[in-house]
Amino acid sequence: MRSWSLWAFLPICFSLCTAIGLILVYFIARQYDTITSLGWQSSNNQRYPPYISIAGNQPPASCVFSQVMNMAAFMGFLIGFLRYLQLKPKVRKPWLNIASLITFSLASFGMTLVGNFQWSNDEAVHNAGTSLSFGLGTVFCWLQSIATLRLNLRNEGRRLGIIRFVLSAAITLSMLLYFSLMLRGHHLHGARTQWCLVMFLLAFIGTLSVEFRHFNFNVVCMEHQEPPVTLSDRFSVVSENHPGTTMQTQDHPGYF
After folding, report:
1. CA 9/CA 3 separation, integer angstroms
2. Burial of 154 (0-12, 13-18, 19+ CB in 10 A)
3. What is the CA radius of gyration of the chain?
4. Which pTM does this prediction carry?
């Protein structure tokens, strides 16, 4: 059995760490009694509904929430860029791959806005980040589902593509239901739907580990080359140092 590439664990770590971090934020907010429970409707009107952003709205939960979202944004951008590099030599028409990179990069940027601009401090910027994360994140999922079926890497694209299309449909329906419930004032059900939406998104990103396990990504560092010398100059230098002999040198790139 062929061993997995270590890069396969990056999407898994992204999904697990982000999910655990957001759940931790929720329990911290519940510990300080700032939000209601996801399980039942509270009679205390001073508590806020358990939306993810509201759970991370007040310290100390906001401190953890900012850290989780910043780490998720960095790892998400890295995953999107590596996915772009993975598919670049495989695609005939690059628009699908480029569009995926742009959408997920903007979605990752939206995560930083959500984490660093709390809802109570700057609602407009926070909501803009939410729209970028959910909206463009959903577009990225659909683009990747299409790319999975078209490219069919290692003959795994058909089965994996079906799973990703199902997850993309679940993400889309959850997002539409979330905004609908929130606008109608059904905040408890809206919060539950938002949590489902986020978990579906994290599950989708986690499926990228299936293809990442077959690939290695190497960073190549090359020394800047000096201007080439003429052939006569090269022979004159060699003859001065080693009479009667010739010598050839070559710089090798270093791999990290």
Report:
1. 12
2. exposed
3. 25
4. 0.82
Q: Burial code of 112-141, b = ≥16 C-beta within 10 A, e = fewer?
A: bbbbbbbbeeeeeebeebbebbbebbbbbb
Lookup result for tokens 């199902």: 166
Instruction: Please give the pLDDT value at position 90.
Output: 86
pLDDT for res 45: 59
Q: Quick check: 13 pLDDT over 80?
A: yes
> What percent of the chain is modeled with pLDDT above 70?
84
Distance CA 120, CA 255 (A): 47
Which of 126-130, 165-169, 245-249 shows the lowest per-residue confidence on average (mean pLDDT)?
Answer: 245-249
Tell me if residue 90 falls in helix, strand or coil: coil
Amino acid 256: pLDDT: 29
Count of other CB atoms within 10 angstroms of residue 52: 23
Are the beta carbons of 162 and 204 closer than 8 angstroms?
no
Q: Is the dihedral of CA 173, 175, 176, 178 positive or negative?
A: positive
